[in-house]
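Repro case for the chain-ordering regression, as requested:
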Amino acid sequence: MWRSTIVLKVAMAISGLILVLYLLAHMYGNLKVFAGQEAFDGYSHHLRTMGEPLLPYAGALWIIRVVLLVAVILHIYCAVTLWRRMRLATAGGGGQRYESTKARRGNQRTYASFTMRWGGVVIALFVVYHLLHLTWNTISPGGASGSPYERVVNGFSIWWVVLSYTVALLAVGFHLRHGVWAALASLGANTSQRRRRHLNVLATVVALLITVGFLIPPFAILFGLVG
Amino acid sequence: MNITLRVWRQPDSDAPGKMHTYQVADVSEDMSFLEMLDVLNEQLTIDGEDPIAFDSDCREGICGMCGLVINGLAHGPGKNVTTCQLHMRSFADGDVIDVEPWRAEPFTVIKDLVVDRSSFDRIIQAGGYITAPTGTAPEANSIPVNKADADAAFDAATCIGCGACVAACPNGSASLFMAAKVAHLGLLPQGQPERHSRVLDMVDQHDAEGFGGCTQIGECTAACPKGIQIDLISRMDRDVLSAIAHRK
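-- result from build under test --
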């Protein structure tokens, strides 16, 4: 029962929605870059002191990190397991298993839906790059700095850094366009044809909000509108 | 009209198959797709060749026997039609039409375009029934069913188990078929006693047969000749969650 395709999809839906909520909070933090260096670095410091003295220094942040890590691992585990079942069920052919090449895109499949798996891989690789860049500052195009604000401004003053983030965020946008709808439907929220339309609109809104919201700071910095 | 057919030919389940090309002349646009295949088979028989094996029975869209992937689409072009209800007027003179069997690992090709769908029977045997005593029809008003539920249950019950949902699904999932059966019985009072065990047993059997998982893409519902809607899959998911929560 616990390894049934439906339970795996539910686990994927819940972990995915946790990550969406995190992205919304992350996006809010990023937009503080417009409030200046003091506000941005202060926000970053506050993330480490929130919950004190009940929690130790960076305690709340570590709780969030553990929850995110568990969600990511669960999400990827379910995705790989379901991908393997798809391969077994279709002799590896998936949606391309017919000889005929006349309906390679099926009846009504969206670009977002058939790029879920490879899009997910792109996003996973991007997250590693992003952590190396802005969290650990291991790679530091434009110069390393102890100030989060300076790291962000230094990085996004370079065109190819902005380009790499743009590509990744478009992948995130497509992933969310299908993912948010599918997650809610897998959790049972699709109760009628009318609701199906509503959920799809919601998924589009969330995908656009997150993609645009995350792209505003890098482009603003590139065009010299910050600081 | 004259048609070129590319048809999947496979002598038996163990032998490899491949696409063969046939010319069919003087096809009337009023012929159904299966009648056009009948004409080709007569020609093949006269020529001493093995006729193409395909499934069909009622030829009026209600039995669920026929089913071909035509030009890459389950039951071909057109909404809410089975292969037997597809007419040659949907094609043009000179068209090249690709004809293949349903493809999914649990649907073994028996010969040419005929697949073994007994995995569907085993999913039904796992839970797609009620154990209320049968007999003569009960008095109609003895168990009240509200109109909305009766209509929704009937919509779900129109599933003919043809397998187009599996054939169309990029994941090879039979979720729509299973969801239709779960909804059909679960919406009615007679289906309540086994509602939880039914959905868990059917899902377990579905997975054991080797069908894939649902990714809510909706190809199934677009291919379904009976217009079964994808919200039934969400309903089945709710039943699974409820069954797990109430598990003894």
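Ordering looks correct now. Chain A touches chain B through 49 residues (CB under 8 Å).
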